[in-house]
Structures are given as C-alpha cells and as structure tokens.
Amino acid sequence: MNAQDAPAFTADLGDGTYRNPVLDADWSDPDLLRVGDDYYLTASSFGRAPGLPLLHSRDLVNWTLVGHALDRLEPAREFAVPRHDCGVWAPALRHHDDRFWIFWGDPDHGVYQVSAPEIRGPWTAPHLLKAGKGLIDACPLWDEESGEAYLVHGWAKSRSGIKNRLTGHRMRPDATGLLDEGEVIVDGDRIPGWFTLEGPKLYRHDGWFWIFAPAGGVETGWQGALRSRGFFGPYEERVVLEQGATDVNGPHQGGWVSTPSGEHWFAHFQHKGAYGRVVHLQPMRWGADGWPVIGDAGTPVAVHRKPDLPRQPPSAPATDDDFPGGRFGRQWQWTANPQEGWATQHSGDGLRLACVRSPDAHDLRRLPSVLTQRLPGAPCTVEVRLRLDADQPGARAGLAVLGDAFSWIGLERGADGTVHLVHRFAESVAEHERDAAHPRMAPEGRVRLRIEAGAGARCRFSYDLGSGWEPSGQVFAATPWRWVGALLGLFGVAPAGAGHAGSATFTRFRITGRRP
Question: Could you tell me which residue ranges the Beta-xylosidase C-terminal Concanavalin A-like domain spans (predicted)?
C-alpha cells in the first residue's frame, strides 16, 4: 500500500517516518506495554460501555482496536444513566504472571482491577481493590528483584478534598488486596512550581523505582519523572517533556515502552478541546545522568523516524460500519450500560435501533441509548443513511454531535403520521433542545445525513431527501464534556410511555478524511 492509498487517519507517512498524533482522536490517558512482538494500549473510557478499549500494534504507529476489557460498568445501577465524566479514569495496563492486568480509579468508588489470560479475554469481573472517594489514576508494580507488589494512585480534589499527592501501598501479589493503610510517597506541594500532580505510572529501571507522572493540568502541563531507591521514597524529580516552542500544549500523561532492539518510546496525550485527548508518540532515551530524555531534548516531535520494528501496513482504528446482520463494530460505545432490545440483530445489513421511550427525549445528553464513537481530530465528513420505521407520534432518530452542547439532524414522526426532516440543538446551559432549521417533509421516511467537521470542530449539517445535498442550519461548534471529547452519535428515541415506539434503521456509516 502506498501513501496515497493509506487510510486517511493513519499516522504512517509511508516513507519510514510518522507524524503526530499517532491516534488523532480522544484516546484519553493512554497507557501501553509490549508483550513479545506485540504492543497494546488502553485508555480512559469514563461512563461509556463497553469500557477500557484495547488497541494493538506491531510498530507503535499503526494501531487497530481489538476489543474492550469491561463489558459493563460497576456499580451497574449507577451507570444505567449517562455519567459522561465519571467511571473509568486513567487506566494502567500491565502483564504479569502470564496475565494481562488493567487497574483504574473510579473517582466515586475506588480502585478497580481486571485481568485476562489473553488481550481479547475473557476478562474477569471488576474487583474493587481499594474503596474510597477521589481515588484515581491507579498503577501497580510487581518488583521482580524483591518479589514485592506495589500500588500507587493519585487523588481527585472534587471528591476527596486532596490533590497534588501520590499515595503508595504494598499490595498482595495476586492483586486481591492491599497490605497496609498506604502513605503519601510524593507530595507535590513540596515541589516548587508543581501542581495537579496525577496520572502516575510506576516502573523499575537501573536499580531505581520510577514514577512517570504529569503535573500542571491537562491544557498547560508537563511530564515529570521521579525516582527513588525505595518505593516509599524519598523521590527526586525532573521535568522531562514540556511544550517549549512547539504547538503541542500540555504534553503529558502516558506510558514508557521499550523495543527488542533497545529503543525507548513514550506515548502521551495532548488536550485538544472538542477533540479530547489525542495520542502522541515520542522517542525516548536514557541520558548519561540516568534520567529519561523524551522527544527532541524534552519537547515534542511533530514528524520522526518510525521505531526500529518490522514494517507494517498503514492502519488506524476503524470508523466506517455497514452493520452486517444488525451488529455494530468495536468502535461504538453506548452512553451508559446497555439494555436488551436497544439494537436488534437481523438477517440483512443495517443498524436497527429501537426508538426508546424516555422522559428525556428532549435532551440527548441524558439518554443512555445513544450509540457513539469518537470524533476524528482531523477535518472529516460523516455520512449515514436513515429510515424511520417507528409509527408512533414523536418518535425520532438521527445523527448527532454530542458534548456539553449538542446538535443532531434526522427524522421525526408527526402527530398526523407524516415524517419530517428536523435539525435541533441545545447549548451547554440549555435543558431542552430547539430547532436549528425549519422542519420539512420527508415523504418517504428516508434520508441521507451528513456532517462536515472542519477546523476547530466546526460542524456543518446537510441532508439529501432524494434531490441532492442541501445545507441545514448554522455552523455548530462542537464542545467537549469536562474531560471527554465530543462524540458522534446515532440514536432512536420517543416521548415517555410504555415499551418501545418502533425502530429506525441506519445503513452505510462512513467517515472520510483528507491525508495531510
């Protein structure tokens, strides 16, 4: 495959180099590891289900999504409704005792872990390792030198009143429990100029305990490295990656990995507003003084030689979907734990979504039955075909850009049985949606829908009722949630009542982009 034929969203430039970001969408708080010749990455999934995405690569540049480690969020009753900024925060991915492990902190419940013999599972049910409010960003370490196991985590001030501190524990080697009450091993308030210390990743290297941890906040922060001869400290610190003269704001929070040939690489995120936290790959080396040097002498690289690994075909996580047999691809997540009947499998192609009755039909942000995927960080065009089969008045379905504000375009059944093309939106402070354009008749109950997302996530909506594309409404500037980038969504909904109000069928979902 040559560069012209490569997927639009791949970072592989086809000439032995890559460009950043390597994952240009909201793969927030990445962590990664190598097992043999394979590299795996997971990321925060917050309140969406399934959670804990699992990506695979052979060269650290070309990634595919191979599954999820968390089918449903726990406690299940609390995630029966959308909790967009809650749930899975900053997971750590490790391999120990022939098992894959993922630890994460839920800011409202505590530190959880799951494990599996293979990356594709089966994964265990979530085990609550440490209960409590504000416990986030958990990472384990099994120390091969001593046989001891450890856990480090950060704190969310919004739940605990504590921030800028890292707490350490001794842990049972089987990760079923902790062996002490824990103690603060790094107090960021005692490091001049450091604040919002969080996201620790724990390693052993060259006789030291290492904590790679960001500070300074997601938009403007930096990556720090801390080291100590003993797990409980004292630690000395250094800034090892910061923006400098580049346009990569707040480069931090990620994971370090090595290759069989002895190269070192660091993957981290950059906060990009409505696009969420995109993932960059930086070269890394260990300096003569024993400290890591990341990027170009401590600042991010934009284009770089690929890792010294076998050449792979250009790839990127899937976006398009034909929904064969009514099934949807791994790239899709619900906005809460799913229920039976939201999507129906059948003999043909197309996603058949129930128009779920809800008292919150006027506000997509409150609907658990929205099927979402990430908004690409590069300009793109999103298209899907929709047929509204539900015959209940008020039943509607459409294509949405969903964040703290939202906008959607689609079809709605009127009280007289006719179907209308509608386009609606809600501002971040609004509790109800309102029209973004005047409704118009859709006599066949079918439409093609399009969103053109340009620079700055400015979205233009259009539709085709059979006579060609026509624009609809004003430009809508997509917005993130507090921690989550804007999402693309498909949904069916109806006013409150008993049962479902019929269904809507989506076919030929496509996202096309332009290679720079």
Answer: 321-511
pTM value is: 0.96
- Annotated active-site residue in 29, 108, 137, 433: 29
Give the active site residue among 12, 106, 137, 198: 198
Using DSSP's 3-state secondary structure scheme, residue 159 falls into helix
Looking at the fold, whether 295 and 407 belong to one and the same domain comes out as no
26 catalytically annotated: no
Range of the domain at 146: 3-305
Both 144 and 185 in one domain: the answer is: yes
Per-residue pLDDT of the chain (516 residues; tens, 9 = 90+): 444 456 778 999 999 999 999 999 999 999 999 999 999 999 999 999 999 999 999 999 999 999 999 999 999 999 999 999 999 999 999 999 999 999 999 999 999 999 999 999 999 999 999 999 999 999 999 999 899 999 999 999 999 999 999 999 999 999 999 999 999 999 999 999 999 999 999 999 999 999 999 999 999 999 999 999 999 999 999 999 999 999 999 999 999 999 999 999 999 999 999 999 999 999 999 999 999 999 999 999 999 999 999 999 999 999 999 999 999 999 999 999 999 999 999 988 899 999 999 999 999 999 999 999 999 999 999 999 999 999 999 999 999 999 999 999 999 999 999 999 999 999 999 989 999 999 999 999 999 999 999 999 999 999 999 999 999 999 999 999 989 999 999 999 999 876 678 999 999 999 998 655
Looking at residue 321, its amino acid is D
The token duo for 28 is 């927030």
CA-based nearest residue to 478, from 493, 488, 490, 492 = 488
Is 312 a member of any domain? no
198 is catalytic: yes
320 within some domain: no
